[in-house]
Input
Amino acid sequence: MNMSLYRTMMKSNMKSFINFGLGSAVYVTLMTSLFPMIADNMEEINSMTELFPEALMRAMGLESFSSYGQFISAEYYGLFFIFILGVFAVMTAVQLLAKLVDRGSMAYLLSTKVSRANVAFTQAMVLITGLAIIILMTIAGGLLAGGWLIDEQYSIEIGNFLQINVLGFLLFFAVGGYSFLISSMFNDEKRAFAVAGALTFVFYGLDMAGKIVLDVDWLRNFSIFSLYEPGKIASGDANLWFSTLILTSIGVVSFLLAVLVFKRRNLPL
Output
């Protein structure tokens, strides 16, 4: 990794990292602030959720609102978290390679003594560092809000909360990995964004379709989003080792392939 390039790219992208991190931290805090009202009306709200269609409950990953862990898993980590991190991973992966090639900036980087492989690896580390910053800010927001607003009898174990966030990091490590690989293949920023975004949307759609319609539950086997089930982590029923192994493998292989592809392909410089 080239440290001079890493520091320069971190400096130019830090504002985006902080903005996404603040957005995630604010959302998890807002969702947490709603739970005391739900806890005060627990029986009525659980009676109301019994009227929800089973398909909707499965899609939300919700069993009940009986604990803060189940609530925050369904209302934040199953919805807004995936949207925020999905947009970040795809957008940043494209900006760090395809955008520089498309706008001619890559020619300046490659005119120095830094090799192509070193440039691609350094850009990958910038993306991974950005993901880590957002997750750390989300953890900080969730722990502070939970400690301040949630009654102890409803609180989530810190270990389970950290596991939800760590597995979330690995999910978007994998999404960022294949998006970075796609970014390394294209000269056009818009095409790279369209392909990476469409693939992510298809994976998410397969997972949701499998949750909503039990007859096509097998579709979830083709989606990496099926490996991230925050509700099951909160209740201690998730197979964390299997999900960790698969998501880490997808991310590592994708980033390594991206470096290899970027090193060997013809660039319009």
The CA atoms of residues 181 and 258 lie 4 Å apart.
